[in-house]
Amino acid sequence: MSSMKEFLSILRRFALPYKRYMVAAVVANLLSAVLNVFSFASIMPMLSMLFGMDTTAYELMPWSSEAGIKDVAVNNLYYYTQVLISNYGAQTALLLIGLFLVAATLLKTSAYFAASAVMVPLRTGIVRDIRVMVYDKVLHLPLAFVSDERRGDIIARMSGDVTEVENSVTSSLDMLIKNPILIVFYFATLIFVSWQLTLFTLLVIPLLGWAMGAIGRKLKAKSLMAQSKWSETMAQLDEMLGGLRIVKAFTAEERMSERFRRVSDEYRTATNRVAIRQASAHPVSEFLGTCIIVIVLWFGGTLIFSDHSPIDAPTFIFYMVILYSVINPLKDFSKASYAIPKGLASMERIDKILSADNPIRDPERPVPLTGLEQGIEYRGVHFAYGNAAQEVVCGVDLTVRRGQTIALVGQSGSGKSTLVDLLPRYHDVTAGQILIDGEDIRHFGIHDLRQLIGNVNQEAILFNDTFFNNIAFGVPDATMDDVVRAARIANAHEFILQSEHGYDTYVGDRGCRLSGGQRQRISIARAILKNPPILILDEATSALDTESERLVQEALERLMRDRTTIAIAHRLSTIRHADEICVVHEGRIVERGTHDELLRRGGYYKHLNDMQQA
């Protein structure tokens, strides 16, 4: 019951935009059920009369007769069959009724096909919508969410779990629309034909539902474990591809292979359990269906052999045909009872992303922000990741006036990168304020705020696209002249022209076809083209050789000109000319001043400088 509630909840969330397809499927399935019953009902009187089972002379009865509608319908069906045989002969009549049955079957199967065909756009649409929703959600969640989750697990949820939802939940949707219609219509026909037999049948059929429920009861938990193992498999694949250079450098191929083989075996074991339990459903339902047919056949036979039978032999044959027709929808219906839990297990994992809280939100009435007029101020800023007790930033006060360059230095893990990540609201402060022109940044729209800021990071993040598209990434309406101008300022134009297709050359996955210095200069060109008034440099030259550093440093100096810059640096030589240098230690600013002032004080900064000089 809980699985059905979850399933209906998914339908309410995702199927409403496609309700016209569901209505069309209901109409087509109703037509299919009517044609199926009518086609078999039409052949029963013919068989009864042809084989001498019924020699009664029937008279046409008006529909307004005092007899019940059932008696009138049966009498008139037999009457018209009798007329057909007397007018055309038994052979011709049998041929005509056979052709009628063929035509009715063609219409029935056409309606059945139409019912299945109109469900295809609904199924694929729901799956597309779920995949897009997960992608958009991950895109807008804070960086902390992505850093806390394994990338391979997120990829597995977008691929394997969404596919499982398609295979289990949305494929069951067709069964859950079609089969209830068939079951209700067929049971109504059975009650119409013989309520005594139908009452007995209703006492026996719950056995089928109970047996199938017992099989599907633990399937969701087993499927959840299998999908978890699949996520771990994808996570290890992602780690191996990302760290392949290190794996080879440390000759750790065997160790990685053994690690992957172990998790693959665990995934295989989990999927075996799910598949075996699922495979047992069909033979069990087949066996129980046969048992039900035999039991009803026995009970119906005892009624016919009794002195005052409420049902004759031809009607009983028709009853058994319809009963056999209702057994298949019941079995399909029961299949959904074990297919749906598999999909719900995957949907539960997908919902962990879709329902993840995003604390970085736009204000209801954002304050307009078009530029930087005065400067930036950190006022008593504190920050801690998640529920961690230890703060990463502890009571920082910092003022950056417009046009100034402020440098942050300190050991790794001191909180420098976190401090600058708070400015574009990749995270929100846990206490204190960050202000731009005297206004709290949480009062601005996120898009407006980030449009003011340009980033050049230690790891230049490029996309597997052309030079042009990478440079114009943040400026979709940029022209070729704009891109070339930015590349020239960033010292990137020459090596771009030397590539195979110039600005239309693909840079490879994460810029793998370029050197570190080239990647960094493309990243700088991207920031130049965006033309932001605020610039964040996060150790932009720390991983470069001397020649590349010189070219990148020249490009950075051009980029920093007339901009408000916050620079994180390990190489103190790159920030000698900063207007103010702040030394960060354990989340606090412990020293501040110019390069020369800090050297004269002989404190922590001088210690760092002496170590680098040595």
Please provide a written account of the structure:
The protein has 22 helices and ten strands. The mean pLDDT is 79. The chain has helices at 2-14, 19-50, 69-117, 119-140, 143-148, 151-193, 195-204, 206-216, 219-242, 244-249, 253-279, 281-305, 313-354, 416-421, 446-451, 467-471, 480-489, 493-497, 516-530, 546-560, 595-601, 604-613, and strands at 375-383, 393-401, 405-409, 431-436, 439-440, 453-457, 534-538, 564-568, 580-585, 588-593. The protein is α/β, with parallel strands linked by helices and 614 residues long. The protein is elongated. The strands form two sheets. A six-stranded mixed sheet has the order 6-7-8-3-9-10. The chain has a four-stranded antiparallel sheet with strand order 2-1-4-5, with no helix packed on it. Helix 1 (2-14) crosses helix 13 (313-354) and helix 4 (119-140) packs antiparallel against helix 6.
Quick tags:
single chain; four-stranded antiparallel β-sheet; elongated; 614 residues; 22 helices; alpha/beta
End-to-end CA span: 73 Å
Order of strands, main sheet, comes to: 6-7-8-3-9-10
Q: In this structure, how is the largest beta sheet organized?
A: 6 strands, mixed
| Average residue-wise pLDDT | 79
Could you tell me the number of beta strands? 10
Poorly predicted segments:
none
Radius of gyration: 37 Å
Query: What is the helix tally?
Result: 22
Overall shape: it is elongated
Approximate strand percentage: 5-15%
Which structural class is indicated by helix and strand composition? Answer: alpha/beta
**Helix proportion range:** 55-70%
Summarize the model shown.
This protein has helices at 2-14, 19-50, 69-117, 119-140, 143-148, 151-193, 195-204, 206-216, 219-242, 244-249, 253-279, 281-305, 313-354, 416-421, 446-451, 467-471, 480-489, 493-497, 516-530, 546-560, 595-601, 604-613, and strands at 375-383, 393-401, 405-409, 431-436, 439-440, 453-457, 534-538, 564-568, 580-585, 588-593. The protein is of the alpha/beta class and 614 residues long.
